[in-house]
Amino acid sequence: MSLIVVGSMAFDMIETPFGKSDRIIGGAATYIAWAAQNFVKPIRQISVVGGDFPKEELDALRAQGVELEGVQIKSDRPSFFWSGKYHMDMNTRDTLVTELNVLGDFEPVVPESYQGAELLMLGNLAPSVQLSVISQLKTRPRLVVADTMNFWMESAWDELLQVLKQVDVLLINDAEARQLSGEYSLVKAARKIAEMGPRFLVIKKGEHGALLFHENHVFFAPALPLEEVFDPTGAGDTFAGGFIGHLARTRDISFDNMKSAIIIGSAMASFCVEKFGIQRLREIDQEDIENRIRQFIDLVNFDIDLIG
Amino acid sequence: MSLIVVGSMAFDMIETPFGKSDRIIGGAATYIAWAAQNFVKPIRQISVVGGDFPKEELDALRAQGVELEGVQIKSDRPSFFWSGKYHMDMNTRDTLVTELNVLGDFEPVVPESYQGAELLMLGNLAPSVQLSVISQLKTRPRLVVADTMNFWMESAWDELLQVLKQVDVLLINDAEARQLSGEYSLVKAARKIAEMGPRFLVIKKGEHGALLFHENHVFFAPALPLEEVFDPTGAGDTFAGGFIGHLARTRDISFDNMKSAIIIGSAMASFCVEKFGIQRLREIDQEDIENRIRQFIDLVNFDIDLIG
Lengths: 308, 308
What we know:
Two copies of one chain form a homodimer. Chain A is built from eleven helices and 14 strands. The first copy, chain A, has helices spanning 28-36, 55-63, 127-136, 150-155, 157-166, 174-181, 186-195, 235-250, 255-272, 279-283, 286-300; strands at 3-6, 10-16, 19-20, 24-26, 43-50, 66-74, 80-86, 93-99, 119-122, 143-147, 169-173, 200-204, 210-214, 217-221. In chain A, the strands form two sheets. A nine-stranded mixed sheet of chain A has the order 6-5-1-9-10-11-12-13-14, with helices on both faces. In chain A, helix 3 (127-136) packs parallel to helix 5, helix 6 (174-181) packs across helix 7 and helix 8 packs across helix 9. Chain A is globular, with a radius of gyration of 18 Å. Chains A, B: It holds the Pfam family PfkB.
């Protein structure tokens, strides 16, 4: 199924207990595209970068089937820049620097060639930008998936609620689910969030896996137990990329297939955290991915004889 | 397979964000026995209580096939008493009161009728007591399972290490695994703990499920997403009871069957947390358990077509 990805493309500078990165390539849409291109081509990207964004990075994405007609290049301005530092447990981080730069006044334009897309993946970005993209689409995609972050809950609550009404699948982390719903129990949170619009809700719990809620059904996918989480940056975006990539490849948006999509998303995220930035995602091939998925199958597979 | 359970039988007083219990029945061996008796009878209990421990509680256990010949009754002294208060997230708690009472100088005596047991379940208790039980057994059980708590890491490190050398399966929580190994990564922690003795390691992560490590294999079982965790007290012991009960019933101590045992343990623990103390465990029947296990199967079951 044809896929539009909307999100930031950016520079990151990351500090973890294991080391410090240079100024490296990041951004939600970058991670999503690198993960999803393993499963579906083309990917129609919508984003904005500054004149400092390396041409070779754009070429590398293009070579993987990522169409960049919807990526605006503002040559006289700098790209979005984020810098953060992770704590020892890697589940919490401090933002050191956020420079919105070209992202601050981004007005997305959906190219004519992108029209008719069946899947829309809204990566973490201002809700107003997400709404603008939705409103520019002449036909509603079969499935709208959104990945959010608490930043927008604090600064753009009303617009966020408008986006949620348009969204079929919402991907958020556990803290966001609690903040969005005001409920501590994730089961209760899921019920409240369903009332806000999304028919499917994925709650990402980092090293503790992910939950998929739909009507009265719930599915759980573990994260792969890893020796080290080297750098968690982009793991959520990569999860989203694997998730949407699998749906696009299989052309199946049923609950059952979303279970598989979450396993694929978890597998992709498990690669992402092995090195800084998108480095590991650029190295892996189909065989690596299949082997990793087999590890997930082994991880949760069991046979049980009921007592009776 | 014949089963000996060693552990405390006690009084608890519990405060959670949802309410406050009276002085209720608790203790590791109590929870283990109530969970395990659904799967195997008899259970040969080793513990100590004071004169204040209600006769009807002992009778209730006896009626479920729990043999109490190894439970000493010190009529002129009080039972072990613990009181604690849970925080909002239910994953952390403060101990308010610990009165060891009869447990402080407990010298277990293994009755002759208990000899020849194939399974030994060492519930949370002083390592010296655990060692004493092991040394009194004339033939080594086929499988020794131990459940520990950080309390003994602080006060009886050397004896704890001696116990670990005798243990085949160790059940601990994530914080204990980190403390015991000095490793933050649970994968690394598992490797170090294997060198201390246990061939199988189960790391319990509460609401985040449980991991089973054995050689280079790893298996993950989720916790059931619940609306409310009403009282987590005894959930770990109940998990242990379901785990050992399943192994005893099926007479199979392979890695594959331990996967099932962990699912059963998780299912039993999911009942435990629904009410104060052992209340919920006393209510449920085989049908409740089977239905709960089916929920676990639905929770993690997926079909995936590999890409190639």
